[in-house]
Amino acid sequence: MAKHDASRRDFLVRAVVGAGAAAGAGLVPDAIAQNHDMQMEGGSSAPGQQHPSGSEHGAFFNHADAATIAAFTERLMPSVPDKPGARDADVLNYIDLALAGAYAEMQDFYRRGLASLDAHCRGAYKESFVHLTPEKQDEVIAALEAGKAPEFAWPSAREFFSILRTHTMEGMFADPLYGGNRDFAGWRLVGFPGAQAIFSPTDLQSKQAFTRAPIVGLQQVAKGPMGRG
After folding, report:
1. How close are the terminal C-alpha atoms of the chain, in Å?
2. 178: nearest Cα among 35, 74, 15, 12
3. Domain spans of the chain, in order of start
4. N or C: less crowded end of the chain, CB within 10 Å?
5. Contacts of 60 (CB under 8 A, 6+ apart)
6. pLDDT for res 127
7. To the nearest whole number, what is the mean pLDDT of the chain?
8. CA 43 to chain CA mean position, Å
9. How far apart are CA 143 and CA 141, in angstroms?
């Protein structure tokens, strides 16, 4: 893995741990949390579901946009052996479901941002983002972060980069109930145990990352005695 990839991964992980956000729900905005509460009380659809056609797209993104988001988020949080990235955690699924629900007001933001991203890539490299090499994809992301992509008007290049980075972190580290953090990939990465029913005295005194199974999420808690009130 390139040094640039490692530093990007380290930055995102430190941001999560340093903010105490690895507690799962702490990364999830109130709108999604409220949506979960409504569903637990008998709402119509279950959060965290997979798309009808698999994890590529289906709730909001079309195929092309889904491929772009998957590639972009993977460069923000690249996977390496024994360390999951955005694809492993199904960050695409999280963002897609959120844009079809709690983040519906951001649909135009994403449509315009993706169109501007495509215009920038084709103008600078004669290719769409997904067809660029990882190195050139990183150049594009760096240009957006620095606000050096004139094809962007609204959202600005910096705004689009910032929101996608935030949503990538949410998809990596929020409770799997919301469609990302598949198989607790993000929680395992930072050693967060989830909603454990009990911690032993050894667990409470340990300064090491939590690794003992099971790691428990909100959906499982809701099915058990704790969730039945």
Report:
1. 47
2. 35
3. 3-192
4. C
5. 96, 97, 99, 100, 107, 110
6. 98
7. 79
8. 24
9. 5
